[in-house]
């Protein structure tokens, strides 16, 4: 189910990781890093599409991203809880994947997003505790990065230049056709299905890019600040 990777993204729903950090995952893959995604739920409460449709869309996005693996823990959508059972499942996953970096949600409008962030934080810590038994060697990732979202005030610690990968990010996001604008659809409208959504997403990443002098950027807060050997490298 899981494979060893350098970077592991953990998201509440299929399409969350793509919206939050697809450009960064694409860039890291191009640099030779192994990447993977764990979706916690199947998105069964979504107003559009279906579990099976979203499963196919997630698989299509994973192929474009070049992931080593994509897994779904099938927790209950709308009820991602920070509890012992879910924590242990993520601890076991991290000990098998052994990522240097975990990427996940910052606090957002959806309660599952904030709970995913809390669950990941606890699992990352507990994964390094020898007395938490999973039948695996203990392991703790170096750090956690939390992607910035455009429905909250931004205060990123770092911004990744994804200018060369934005077109491909749009392709990845567009794999979730059931969630995006379709004038022929009779399903309920959502935030993502508005005609202007993809333009707003592009403007968001242009703004982050402008903050650091590039065309498109993805912003992250970090569980600990980065250490650099030379101030001129900033």
Textual characterization of the structure:
The chain is an alpha/beta fold. The protein has one domain (7-226): Rossmann fold. Helix content is 37%, strand content 17%. It contains six helices and seven strands. It has helices at 16-30, 51-65, 84-97, 111-127, 166-174, 197-212, and strands at residues 7-11, 35-41, 69-75, 101-105, 143-147, 158-161, 217-222. It has a seven-stranded mixed sheet, sandwiched between helices. β1, α1 (16-30) and β2 (35-41) form a beta-alpha-beta unit. α1 packs across α5 and α3 (84-97) crosses α4 (111-127). It is globular, with a radius of gyration of 17 Å. The mean pLDDT is 95.
Strand order of the largest sheet: 3-2-1-4-5-7-6
Structural class: alpha/beta
How many helices in DSSP terms?
Answer: 6
Question: For the CA atoms, what is the radius of gyration?
Answer: 17 Å
Low-confidence segments: none
Question: What's the helix-strand series?
Answer: EHEHEHEHEEHHE
Topology:
Layout: E1 7-11, H1 16-30, E2 35-41, H2 51-65, E3 69-75, H3 84-97, E4 101-105, H4 111-127, E5 143-147, E6 158-161, H5 166-174, H6 197-212, E7 217-222
Parallel strand pairs: 1-2, 1-4, 2-3, 4-5
Antiparallel strand pairs: 5-7, 6-7
Helix pairs in contact: 1-5, 2-5, 3-4
């Amino acid at each position: 189910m899981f494979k060893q990777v350098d970077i592991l993204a953990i998201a509440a729903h299929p399409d969350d990781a793509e919206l939050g950090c697809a450009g960064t995952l694409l860039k890291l893959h191009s640099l030779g890093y192994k990447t993977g995604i764990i979706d916690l739920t199947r998105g069964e409460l979504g107003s559009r599409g279906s579990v099976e449709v979203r499963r196919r869309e997630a698989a299509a996005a994973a192929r474009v991203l070049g992931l080593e693996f994509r897994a779904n823990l099938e927790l209950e959508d709308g009820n991602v809880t920070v509890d012992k059972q879910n924590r242990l499942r993520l601890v076991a996953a991290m000990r098998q994947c052994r990522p240097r970096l975990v990427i996940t949600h910052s606090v957002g409008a959806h309660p599952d997003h904030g709970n995913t962030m809390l669950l990941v934080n606890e699992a990352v810590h507990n994964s390094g505790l020898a007395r938490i038994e999973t039948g695996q060697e203990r392991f703790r990732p170096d750090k956690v990065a939390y992607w910035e979202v455009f429905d909250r005030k931004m205060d990123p610690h770092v911004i990744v230049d994804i200018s060369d990968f934005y077109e491909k990010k749009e392709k990845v996001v567009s794999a979730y056709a059931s969630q995006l604008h379709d004038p022929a659809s009779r399903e309920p409208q959502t935030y993502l299905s508005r005609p202007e959504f993809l333009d707003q997403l592009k403007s968001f990443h242009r703004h982050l890019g402008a903050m650091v002098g590039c065309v498109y950027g993805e912003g992250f807060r970090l569980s600990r600040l980065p250490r650099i050997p030379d101030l001129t490298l900033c």
